[in-house]
Write a structure and sequence with these properties.
Helix content is 30%, strand content 20%. The protein has a two-stranded antiparallel ribbon with strand order 1-2. The two termini are 13 Å apart. With 66 residues, it is an alpha+beta fold. The radius of gyration is 14 Å and the shape is elongated.
Length: 66
């Protein structure tokens, strides 16, 4: 069953570093379907620093199931 995890980090770029490390892990250990690393600028706007996008086929399958 899919799970949603939200994790906060200190520093602007730490989340992107962790996302990159998770992508490099053994797929037998972690099945990462989608991920995004964001941070808030000094003006309060959200910025995407790193992203792992599902393929179109995966997105269509998930959309059909929902």
């Amino acid at each position: 069953m899919p799970e949603l995890m939200v994790i906060g980090f200190e520093g602007k770029y730490r989340a992107a570093e962790v996302l990159e490390q998770l992508q490099g892990l053994n797929p037998d250990w972690i099945d990462l379907k989608d991920g995004v690393a964001v941070y808030r600028t000094e003006r309060g706007k959200l910025r995407v620093d790193g992203s792992l996008q599902p393929t179109m086929k995966d997105g269509a399958t998930a959309g059909a199931l929902l």
